[in-house]
Structure formats: C-alpha cells, structure tokens
Automatic annotation (TrEMBL):
It comes from Deinococcus proteolyticus (strain ATCC 35074 / DSM 20540 / JCM 6276 / NBRC 101906 / NCIMB 13154 / VKM Ac-1939 / CCM 2703 / MRP). It catalyses: a 3'-end 3'-phospho-ribonucleotide-RNA + a 5'-end dephospho-ribonucleoside-RNA + GTP = a ribonucleotidyl-ribonucleotide-RNA + GMP + diphosphate. This is 3'-phosphate/5'-hydroxy nucleic acid ligase. SUPFAM superfamilies: Hypothetical protein PH1602 (SSF103365). Residues 380-408 are annotated as: Disordered. Mn(2+) 2 binds at residues 251, 334. GO terms for biological process: DNA repair; RNA processing; RNA repair. The keyword Endoplasmic reticulum does not apply. Its cofactor is Mn(2+). Keywords: GTP-binding, Ligase, Manganese, Metal-binding, Nucleotide-binding, RNA repair. The active site is at residue 390. GMP binds at residues 223-227, 334-335, 366-369, 373, 390-393. Its EC number is 6.5.1.8.
C-alpha cells in the first residue's frame, strides 16, 4: 500500500513503515485497501488492544511509545509566565531565590505558592519556598534532608541552674554529630519507628533499614544542633506558669537514610522528565497516580517519622541524664510535603525550609547558634498556604562566610551573647544569617510569638573543641 494513504491517517515516523508492513501482510490475506485502512484506524484509536500479538502488535507498541513521549513532552512544557505568589520580606530575599521560585511557579503541575522571609537559594525549590502542586510530588521540592525538623523540651529546672561545664559534658556524652556517625550498638535506643511495616514494602527501604538503625538518635552536619538554653514563657502558654525554664532545643533530620531516599527518587523523577526545561530540571516530579509516586510518598513520610524519632531519642537521653521528664514539648518538620486543602481542592503542599503555620498550631523558628529562637503559633494565613519561615535564613553562603567572617569576629559575637559553642565552624557563624528579629517582623500576619529561647551551650558538628 502506498505510504501516502497511511500518512493521511496521521501516522508518523517509524509508525508509517510498521503500518505499511502490516498492510502488506493483510493484502496477502486478501483484504482490500478500504478494509485495511479501517483496521489501521482501529489500531490507531486503541493501540492497547493490539499489543498482545498479531499482525498489528509491533505497530501498536510503537503508537503507545509515541503517545507516551508526546505526553511527557507536553507535560514538561513550562508556562510562559509564573503563577502569582505571595512574598514576605522581599527586601531580605536574594534575587536567585526569587528566580528559582518563579521557575517553580511555571511548572504545569503548580497551582499556588509562597516565599518566606528567610528564603535563599537551594537546589530546585529555594529554601523558604512553599509550593502547591496537583497530584504530583517533587523530591527536590521536599529536599535532600527529608523531614528536617525541630524539637523543644521544657524541663522542670529553673533557668541558669545547670552550669556550663555540666551542660557541655552532657552534650558531649549524649549527642552525636556528623556524616555517617552513630551510637555504638550497645548504646543504641530502640524506637517504634524502626519496627514499622513500611521498611519491608520497598527494596530501597529494606536496604536502608540497617543504616537508619545505626544512626537513630544522632544529628548531621551543617546547621544541625543540640543546645541547652533558657525559655521565657508567659503565663498559660504551653500549659506552663509564667517564668524562665531550662530547655533543650534540637535541629536534625533523617540522616543518611533520608538523603539516599531523596537521591534515588530524584534520579527517577528526572528520568521521567528528560525533556523538562533545564531551568527546572531539579523540579522533576512523580505523579501520585503512579507506583513511583506512591513509593516516594511512602518513603518520604517514613523518613519524616524517622527524623522526629531522632529528636525523641536526643531529648530522652538528655532528660534521663538530668533525672527529669519534660513539662512540655513542641516539634515540627520543615522539609516535607503534605496533602492540604487549598481553595477547596486537595493539593500537595511542599515546604522546603518552611514551617507549617495552620491556625493554632505551634512551631519553632530558630535563629543562629548565638541568637534567640522562638516558639510561635500559626495564624492560618491562606495566602502563605498556612506557612511561615523555618529559621533566620542564610545571607552568606558557606564559602562566603568562611572568607568574610574571622575566627575572632565569630568568637566575639558568641562571647557578647554568653554562648559556649562545641564544634561549629565559621561557615555557620551567626553573621552568616539574617537577623531573626528582622525575619519575624516580616511575618506578623503568619505567626505570633509564644515564647523565646536563648541559647547558652550549643553543640554542632566538626569536633569537640570550642571555636
């Protein structure tokens, strides 16, 4: 059969040759042109019906491949302009973070977004970015440290009654920091999260269970910390009498387990969107109507629970060492995705370095190693997708901080504020961060301050020596 009849039906590229081959076979079986063209139209309309064998099987498979490629190319096309989104504290946010948010709001799956005042450049979605998508989750919209989170424990001990030397010894003995670090097997504590059935549901989770067990109750590097300090509370807040209490504040995540989950599913998402605009490559997504999307959703939530289990154990060790039980605790994740109603529609809200701030919900917004942190209550502002900042936010990158902040300047800042530091480095110098007071002042319509925490003895990664 002449190829012009086949191309008129809309067949393209390799499908034309395959249709001609099938047509010749059918001609040999005695069918006329009209009958063959009718059959080709039927295959074209429903190729999935012809893939199991027969003369049209190879053509049907090619048509399905072409359709999948077309769907991917279409879905990968970015909007010409970003959807509108709210920005808090625009004057505090570098242009690079805004550009990243603009790209995210051009994704075909994006429906709403917001940028918090602590925002700065990240991988894919900026740190401080909030993005709502329809029926899709973006691994790098959650981040590498899945479930990165905060926890505060308020102890029945008056502020100032724990000496600095004793606090330092407790932190050195009962906390662990750094890549690959864990407690010795005889020192490990058990936790219910390690016995969840989800670990057995996926090969990658089975593989990472042992690593997670080794590192539970520990903290990573970078800006992770555990610190003793003083919490000033107004009467009735947190169920406490007004006063100043000894408290423990920690910042940790899902450790090597979460990082490997993030890497695995990010590569998978990128492989499914090879035609995605290079500017949005790290924003590749997985549909929640696919097995891969459901697998990531399960793994992400497990990593989030595991991250909070790390905090549970950090606080349990220190409380037990002090012979006390916490009077109150507050915790929240700030690197996760949630199913949330937005304008009457269920969307997937990614918070990458943003704190959930639904009306009445308590959260934690830390400053730097030497600046105050705050317990806040969410106001449920729909314009921010009920979100707030997750901290002060960097104003200097790590290398820039090391170049521009001297050891003497960093020590002077700590000394002026009465902070003892274990570990840490100039890449985490307080001067590398925006002023937490400035950040809070830009989001008074998102949260209200409930209590203020002042750090006194802080432990971070990079060793046991004070800076």
């Amino acid at each position: 059969m002449n190829g012009k009849y086949i191309t008129k039906l809309g067949f393209e590229n390799r499908a034309v040759g395959l249709a001609q081959q099938a047509a010749r076979v059918r001609e040999g079986a005695g069918l006329g042109r009209t009958e063959i063209l009718d059959e080709l139209r039927t295959v074209q309309a429903a190729p999935e019906r012809f893939t199991q064998g027969g003369v049209y099987a190879e053509l049907a498979a090619e048509l399905l491949t072409q359709r999948a490629a077309l769907k991917q190319a279409t879905s990968a096309a970015l909007r010409g302009e970003p959807l509108p989104y709210g920005v808090w504290g625009a004057e505090l946010i570098d242009a690079g973070a805004t550009e990243q948010m603009d790209v995210a709001m051009r994704l075909p799956i994006s429906r709403a977004g917001a940028l918090m005042p602590d925002a700065h450049i990240g991988y894919g979605l900026p740190i401080g970015g909030v993005l709502a998508t329809e029926n899709a989750v973006i691994p790098y919209g959650v981040g590498v440290d899945i479930g990165c989170s905060m926890m505060l424990s308020v102890l029945p001990i008056p502020a100032g009654s724990l000496g600095r030397d004793e606090a330092r010894k407790l932190l050195l003995k009962h906390t662990r920091f750094g890549a690959g670090v864990g407690f010795e097997k005889r020192e490990r504590m058990d936790h219910e999260v390690m016995h969840e059935k989800a670990w057995q549901d996926q090969g990658i989770l089975k593989f990472l269970h042992a690593k997670a067990a080794e590192q539970i109750g520990t903290s990573g590097s970078g800006n992770h910390f555990v610190e003793f300090g003083e919490l000033k509370v107004a009467g009735g807040e947190l169920g406490l009498e007004a006063g100043e209490y000894l408290a423990v504040l920690s910042h940790s995540g899902s450790r090597g387990f979460g990082a490997q989950v993030a890497g695995h599913f990010t590569k998978l998402a990128e492989s499914r969107h090879k035609r995605l605009d290079p500017a949005a490559r790290r924003l590749a997504w997985l549909g929640l109507d696919t097995e891969e999307g459901q697998a990531y959703w399960q793994a992400m939530n497990l990593a989030g629970r595991y991250a909070l289990a790390n905090h549970d154990q950090i606080h349990a060790r220190l409380s037990r060492a002090l012979g006390e039980r916490p009077l109150a605790q507050v915790s929240n994740s700030h690197n996760l995705a949630w199913k949330q109603q937005v304008n009457g529609q269920e969307l997937i809200v990614h918070r990458k370095g943003a704190t959930p701030a639904e009306a009445g919900r308590l959260g934690l917004i830390p400053g730097s190693m030497a600046d105050p942190s705050f317990v806040v209550r969410g106001l449920g502002n729909p314009e921010s997708l009920s979100s707030s900042s997750h901290g002060a936010g960097r104003q200097l990158g790590r290398k820039a901080a090391e170049r521009s902040v001297s050891k003497d300047e960093m020590q002077g800042y700590l000394r002026e504020r009465g902070v003892t530091l274990i570990g840490g480095g100039r890449d985490e110098a307080p001067q590398a961060y925006k002023r937490i007071e400035d950040v809070l002042a830009r989001q008074t319509d998102l949260v209200e301050v409930v209590a203020e925490f002042t750090p006194r003895v802080v432990r971070m990664d990079t060793g046991n020596q004070d800076i």
